[in-house]
Amino acid sequence: MSFSQKIIFWYSANKRSLPWRNTKDPYKIWLSEIMLQQTRVSQGMPYYERFVEQFPTVHDLAKASEEEVLKLWQGLGYYSRARNLHTTSKLVSEKYNGNFPNTYKELLSLKGVGDYTASAIASFCFNEAQPVVDGNVYRVLSRYFGIDLPINSTEGITYFKALSLKVMDANQIADYNQGIMEFGALLCAPKNPYCLHCPLSDSCVALQKGKINVFPVKLKKAKVKERYFNYLVVLDKFNHIEIRQRRGKGIWQNLFEFPLLETEKEYSLEEVKKTMGAILELKEASEIYQFNEKTIVHRLSHQHLHTKFWIVKSEEKRKNGVSFDKLKEYPVPVLIAEFINAFKF
C-alpha cells in the first residue's frame, strides 16, 4: 500500500465520531475549521455545538450582532477569528445568498480563510483535490520523510504544500485529508507518539534514525513581551461597575474590560493612587484595595500579562457603569471573566 492508502485504511478503522464529520454543509465545516485553529477538539466541541444551536445557518450568524458572536466565542481566544467569522457570514449571506463558494480559489477570497481552511472546505464538501496542511500534517510528513526544513519558514511552507500535493489520494481526498489530520492528532502525537502501533513505522525516517523528537523543526519564536496590567474595578454607590470597550488592533479588540492602567513594571497601591487619575474621571475614592494577593500572570502566545485588580469604591455615579447582572452579558476576555466569577459584587 502507498503512504496515502495506509493513512486512509488506518482512518477507516480509528476515526473519532465528530459532529462536523456527519455533514457536507460548507457552513458547518467552515465553522468547525475556524474554531479548531489553535484549539483542541475537546475544547472546541462545546463551542461548535452552541454556535450551531444559536446560529443554525450562515444567515442566522450574519444577522447577529458582533457582541453576541464575541460573547458566544468567549474563552476560545484569538478573537480575530470570531470577528472574521462574523464578517464572512455577512458576505456569504448577502453576496452569495447563503451558498459558500465551491472552489478552493474562490474560498480563499473570504476573510479569515487561508490555504488550510479553503483546502478543508473544498475537499470535504466539494471533493476538490486540495490537500490540507495543518500542524498535524506537518508533524506526520516531517517525521515520515525526515524533512528538517522549518515548518514556519516560507521555504518550509512551500515545500510541505508541494509534498502534500504529491502524496495525497486525489480520488479519496476527503478521507485522506481527514485521515492524515486524525493520524497526527491520535497516533503521531507531538509527545510520546504510538510508534509501536504505527502502520508507517517500517518506512518512517525519523523512527529509523531515532529522531522522532526532532521533527517537526521550527524557527525560534519571537521573544515574549512582558506587560503589566492594573485593572481599576470602579464600584459606585449604586453597585454599578464601570466597563469600557477595547479599541484598536491589539489583543481583545472590541471586547469589554475594566478601566486599564498599563505600566512598565508592577505598581504598588500608592503608585496606583498617584497615577489612576489619568485613566479615571474620579473626584475622590472612598476606598482602594488590591483584590488578588498575588499578581496573576495571564499567558498569551507572545505576551505575558502581569495583572492586578484594584477595587476602587466611589460615591460618584459612573457614566459607563452597569449592574452585575448586565455585566455578565458583555463579551470579555477570559482574564476578566475569571475575576467576575471570583469577586462577590
TrEMBL record:
It catalyses: Hydrolyzes free adenine bases from 7,8-dihydro-8-oxoguanine:adenine mismatched double-stranded DNA, leaving an apurinic site. Its EC number is 3.2.2.31. It is an enzyme of class 3 (hydrolase). Binds 1 [4Fe-4S] cluster. GO terms for molecular function: purine-specific mismatch base pair DNA N-glycosylase activity. Its cofactor is [4Fe-4S] cluster. Residues 35-186 form the HhH-GPD domain. Keywords: 4Fe-4S, DNA damage, DNA repair, Glycosidase, Hydrolase, Iron, Iron-sulfur, Metal-binding. The keyword 4Fe-4S applies. Belongs to the Nth/MutY family. Adenine glycosylase active on G-A mispairs. MutY also corrects error-prone DNA synthesis past GO lesions which are due to the oxidatively damaged form of guanine: 7,8-dihydro-8-oxoguanine (8-oxo-dGTP). This is Adenine DNA glycosylase. It comes from Sediminicola arcticus. The gene is mutY.
